[in-house]
Amino acid sequence: MEPYNLTCTLEFLLLGLSEDPELQPILFVLFLLIYMLTVLGNVLILLAINSDSQLHSPMYFFLYNLSLSDMGFSSTIIPKLLINMQTHNKSITYADCLSQVSFFVLFGCMDSLLLTVMAYDRWVAICHPLHYQVILNSRLCRCLVLMLFFISFMDSQVHCLMVSQLKFCTNMEIPHFFCDVPELLKLACSDTSISNLLRFLLSIIFGFLPASGIFYSYYKILSSIVRIPSLLGKYKAFSTCGSHLSVVCLFYGTGLVAYLSSTISSSTRGSMVASVMYTMIVPMMNPFIYSLRNRDMKKALQKFFS
Question: Are 242 and 233 in contact (CB under 8 A)?
Fold first, then answer.
């Protein structure tokens, strides 16, 4: 079959999580609730940080940007999924598919890099507390976030360009609930060896390297905590990292499962379940983890509501 460029075609078909018509209303209500909780939770984090001057520190500045990124991450996927489920129309245009790929990679990469910078923030706070305000001054924090956004934007444009160069045959059915790059590569009729190699390299750069940076930061943090003589001091030092460490494990754990599922297994079911976890559940859980495990955040939220 002769491949041709997708710009000549009109749309893809997103097959979604299930084709069972009886499950569609249940899934619609479930994903709508998840999206509403995600937006509400992250908006509360933003309002709490804005309203409490005690939270105007580097740690909460990065958390503020993480909440913005999480909302963008979920908004890239869930609204289109809800519209398709409500209208019983599984189509997505070529332009919308490229946009979804671009924003999905942008916010996903931004999340990964922000978690790395937040690990660095905790390392400075615990290992160099006297120089914390000097090292992580407001100007450096703003520059770091701008640099992370630029890097994430470049990563998203590389993925978008890679997808735009693919050629497809008549099969336009994507066995997923969004335009996932691995599924698009499997669907292409043209040679994807270079694209797969590029995707692997980008995964190492924006996945493995940030995870390694987080691991190294916590290695230095643990080494510093071990030298604290009192048990109470050790607990106080490590408790400041509890929320961040929980989010890191949740984000990278589900992301790794999704990546391995799409790379190793030919079955899309496991990949979709893992994708639901890191595209919907993780952004929803992040604000609850930070608000429930963080005493300052709980005080700020109580002050905001009172």
Answer: no
DSSP class of residue 174 equals: E
Q: Dihedrals φ, ψ of 151, to 5°?
A: -65, -45
* pLDDT tens for each residue of 252-306: 887 777 777 666 655 566 667 778 888 888 899 888 888 766 777 878 778 877 7
The residue among 206, 18, 12, 238 whose CA lies nearest residue 114 is 206
The DSSP code for 92 is E
2: which 2 tokens? Answer: 């002769």
Q: What whole-number distance in Å separates Cα of residue 258 and Cα of residue 117? A: 23
Domains in the chain: ranges and CATH: 4-305 (1.20.1070.10)
Across the strands, what pairs with 13?
91, 173
Distance separating the N- and C-terminal Cα atoms of the chain:
66
> Between 242-264 and 268-276, two packed helices, what is the crossing angle to 10 degrees?
160
- Tell me the whole-structure pTM to 2 decimals: 0.89
Question: What are the tens digits of pLDDT across the range 27-50?
Answer: 899 999 999 999 999 999 998 888
99: tokens are 């946009």
The beta-carbon contacts of 181-185 under 8 Å, at least 24 apart in sequence, are 181/101, 181/105, 182/262, 182/263, 182/271, 183/262, 183/268, 184/97, 184/101
CA distance 109 to 115: 10
> What distance in Å separates the CA atoms of residue 52 and residue 238, rounded to the nearest whole number?
24
Q: How many C-beta neighbours within 10 Å does residue 246 have?
A: 16
How many CB atoms are located within 10 Å of the residue 42 CB? 24
* CA–CA dist 255, 252 (Å, integer): 5
Residues in a beta bridge with 4: 168
204: exposed, middle or buried (C-beta count within 10 Å: 0-12, 13-18, 19+)? exposed
